[in-house]
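Subject: two folds for Thursday's group meeting

Dear M.,

Sorry for the delay on this. The cluster queue was jammed most of the week, so I only got both jobs back this morning. I'm pasting them in the order they finished. Each block is the input sequence followed by the predicted structure tokens. Could you check whether the formatting survives your parser before we put anything on slides? The first protein is the one we discussed after the seminar.
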Amino acid sequence: QVQLVESGGGLVQAGGSLRLSCAASGRSFSGYNMGWFRQAPGKEREFVAAISWNGGRTYYRTDYADSVKGRFTISRDNAKNTLYLRMNSLKPEDTAIYYCAAASLLRIGPTREDEYDYWGQGTQVTVSS
């Protein structure tokens, strides 16, 4: 199995930027597709972005009302066993606990919670208006 620890959250003003990190340990990091989810107060956890095992393919939340594509960038460094989420042009509605998660290589472009096997404990991101 793999253990995941997120970091990099904090308080930022609207329009600002943050970079989240997710450090992995245990089984080979490159043996997993990875994703970021978030959960705002009173809401269900939702998909934000995912990346294939070698970084060759990325997927983003594209709901019209809540799209992150163009503002957020998911990336990974397999040599450092670390997943990243760069968040630019942050909005108050991006306020949430952000979780990283690991999915089997059999899951192509995983966007659902039930496609992921391992989760971190989350890091809080708060965007003030």
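Second protein, same layout:
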Amino acid sequence: QVQLAESGGGLVQPGGSLTLSCVVSENIFRVSTMGWYRQAPGKQRELVATVTTTGTTRYADSVKGRFTISRDNAKNTVFLQMNSLKPEDTAVYYCNRQIFLLSWGQGTQVTVSS
């Protein structure tokens, strides 16, 4: 079974930055468009950024200009650089494929608060 392992979350002040990482256990990563999702308390999980196998990226309007998604195919890893963080970015962040979702990992908590 393919496993997803997210890391890098934490507590940060508004305006701060964090970089999240997600390692995928198998080479299915290399043929997949990957995405970062987030789920805030009481809200549905939403897709915030995607990156194709060739590096084309797309972002939700709420994070455009502040977040950058990237990938390292040699290490089966996808990253999310988050800058200018806002309290409304507080959520559990997950990675997964954009389609044909894999079993979800545990996610990593991001809390933006002063």
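Two things I noticed about the second structure. The mean pLDDT is 95. The first strand starts at residue 4 and ends at 7.

Cheers,
T.
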